[in-house]
Write a structure and sequence with these properties.
The complex is a heterodimer of chains A (423) and B (156). The two termini of chain A are 40 Å apart. Chain A is of the alpha/beta class and 423 residues long. Chain A is built from 14 helices and 17 strands. Helix content of chain A is 39%, strand content 16%. Chain B has a single domain, classed as Alpha-Beta Complex (Sufe protein. Chain: A). Chain B is built from five helices and four strands, in the order H-E-E-E-H-H-H-H-E. In chain B, strands 3-2-1-4 form a four-stranded mixed sheet, with helices on one face. Chain B is globular, with a radius of gyration of 14 Å. Classes of the chains: A alpha/beta (423), B alpha+beta (156). At the A-B interface, helix 12 and helix 14 of A face helix 2 of B. The structure holds pyridoxal-5'-phosphate. Pyridoxal-5'-phosphate binds next to helix 4 of chain A.
């Protein structure tokens, strides 16, 4: 089965992944051959950042070795080739999220910059004191702080859509927060700390009924399942390249073209103007209006190749594989005495936050590291979630397209041994 | 599998981590400071009671953190009792160097309480785990802030 991110489907846990050539996929990732402390690397920190396949690494080297130049500026051969490859990457992203137009795909430094861009341009232009923006209790700090800055600047109100103890998004409570004052709903598509898949189709429908726009933070969604921005009928969608097996320093802001063309620029500079005189400057339309200055060229091209890579395997197949791993890992970790999984929503992406009685997450992180296992420990840049569960930190295993059940076993085994050490 | 970790997670440290000493909020503390490590989410409050001669008559703490940070705070409160403010500062600086400098020489702490030095040397095993140095030093940074009159401190 696949995880349909547009519908609140309950995962059946079916894990028929026979067609999934895991060995071949793993061979694409050079780093997976790495040993740490004499043990094979077991990389379970994909939620923080994913590893890169050979295809992405090679494509970026190819840029620098064979045709690198600035884009949109030169008449020479290298500039034309770089520009073509850069714009081709934009088209790949367009197809990847099924955007109506390539002009709707804006390259940014990452999700953080994408959200800040919307807050600083659309937000400053369209919001006034007393207007309300709804966030969820599960947001990453990058989808909280930009709105707080705006609140402090212009006096908007922030409302927080609650979750239940399992980490489920409470649709009824969300609906109750909506009012004529609601101008924007900015929520995560999938929680990085809990793995919860938010019922975004319903969120979007309800928000639109009140005339509010919706921004989705898709960082943890795009690596795990098909995302179709038109089917979702969303207004803004953001994600980072590095969690999608692409490079750092590149991310995407997708927005509806009419909205984007009505937004003021974010930064001023080269590449974003139609004409400049000292009296008046006219800005280009989207996407160039929002891409002042020299962009991350090789990174954008690398992201395009990462998109090709995951599309080549098929997001449905990746999703099926990861859901199988998630189910296996959930069973395996639940069987460890004293271990509590934090975030048990009905529909989850392959992310498991957990705590172990009497052992601080940091100590867990240091110990499993010795077994070669990379997990994230801390608050995952989602302190309100940690507060909700009354913990300062958790350990988190987040699985990607190359992870195996054997790796889950290595983690479980390392956790058992860590427990023995602290017993 | 965890042999290398034994150097850091020694029995004494594990014991203090599990059963922290002076884990309380004294009513007559004369200074306190909040310490937090924003990356880890560790939070500590250190309470110090100074008498008229700037001698520490009581030291205690509360908060939450990993085994290393709790053990460090616990051991620190034991070490500090009876020390003057100046002696506490010398120990803090010595410990800090111990955890971060390769060329640290214990003779730098000549004249200090030997038992204290022995405990600090034990904790300085974090030097091999750069990311964990903050765990060991958070309590000391916070104590220093408390006696200097700064209420908030964060190690970044
Ligand atoms: C849900 C979510 N939103 C936003 C971000 C921020 O992404 P970046 O740091 O790449 O801008 C992250 C990354 O940790 C995330 O998991």
């Amino acid at each position: 089965m696949s995880m349909d991110l547009s519908q609140p489907v309950i995962s059946s846990g079916d894990n028929s992944t026979s067609a999934y050539d895991l060995e071949r996929i793993r061979a694409d990732f050079p780093i997976l051959k790495q040993e740490v402390y004499g043990k094979p690397l077991v990389y379970l920190d994909n939620g923080a950042s994913a590893q890169k396949p050979r295809q992405v690494i090679d494509a970026m080297s190819d840029v620098f070795e064979n045709y690198y130049s600035n884009v949109h500026r030169g008449v020479h051969w290298t500039s034309q080739r770089s520009t073509e490859a850069f714009e081709a990457a934009r088209e790949k992203v367009q197809v990847f999220i099924n955007a109506a137009s390539v002009n709707e795909v804006i390259f940014t430094r990452g999700a953080t910059e994408s959200i800040n861009l919307v807050a600083a341009t659309w937000g400053r232009k369209n919001l006034k004191a007393g207007d309300e923006v709804i966030l969820s209790h599960m947001e990453h700090h990058s989808n909280i702080v930009p709105w707080q800055l705006l609140r402090d600047e212009i006096g908007i109100e922030l409302k927080i859509a609650p979750i239940d103890k399992g980490g489920n998004f409470l649709l009824d409570a969300f609906e109750a927060l909506l009012s004529d004052k609601t101008k924007l709903v900015a929520v995560t598509h999938v929680s990085n700390a809990l793995g919860t898949v938010v019922p975004v189709a319903d969120v979007i429908r309800l928000a639109h009924e009140k005339g509010a726009l919706v921004l989705l933070d898709g960082c943890q969604a795009v690596p795990h399942a098909v995302v179709d921005v038109q089917a979702l009928d969303v207004d803004f969608y953001v994600f980072s390249g590095h969690k999608l097996y692409g490079p750092t320093g590149i991310g995407v802001l997708w927005g509806r073209e009419d909205l984007l063309n009505a937004m003021p620029p974010y930064q001023g500079g080269g590449d974003m103007i139609s004409s400049v005189t000292f009296e008046k400057t006219t800005f280009m339309k989207t996407p160039h209006r929002f891409e002042a200055g020299t962009p991350a060229i090789a990174e954008a091209i690398g992201l395009g190749v990462a998109v090709d890579y995951v599309s080549g395997i098929g997001l449905e197949n990746i999703s099926a594989h990861e859901q199988g791993i998630l189910q296996y890992a959930t069973e395996k970790l639940s069987a460890i005495k004293g271990l509590t999984i934090i975030g048990t929503a009905k529909e989850k992406a392959s992310i498991i936050s957990f705590s172990v009685d009497g052992i601080h997450p940091h100590d867990i992180g240091t110990f499993v590291d010795r077994a070669g296992v990379a997990v994230r420990v801390g608050h995952h840049c989602a302190q309100p979630v940690m507060e909700f569960y009354g913990v300062a930190a958790t350990a988190r295993a987040s699985f990607g397209l190359y992870n195996t059940r054997d790796e889950v076993d290595v983690l479980a085994d390392a956790l058992e041994q860590t427990k023995e050490f602290f017993a | 599998m965890f042999d290398d970790l034994r150097d850091l997670y020694q029995e004494v440290i594990l014991d203090h981590g599990k059963k922290p000493r002076n884990f309380r909020c004294p009513e007559n503390a004369t200074c306190l400071a909040h310490g937090n490590n924003p990356i880890c989410g560790d939070t500590l409050v250190i309470y110090i009671t100074l008498d008229g001669d700037e001698r520490i008559t009581d030291a205690a703490f509360q908060g939450e953190g990993c085994a290393i940070s709790v053990a460090s705070a616990s051991m620190m409160t034991e070490i500090l009792k009876g020390k003057t403010r100046a002696e506490a500062k010398t120990l803090f600086e010595g410990f800090h160097d111990m955890c971060t400098k390769d060329d640290f020489d214990v003779s730098q702490l000549a004249g200090c309480d030997e038992d204290a030095i022995e405990r600090l040397v034990m904790l300085s095993g974090v030097k091999e785990f750069p990311i964990r140095v903050k765990c060991a030093t958070l309590a000391w940074h916070t104590m220093q802030a408390a006696v200097e009159g700064d209420e908030e401190i964060s190690t970044e």
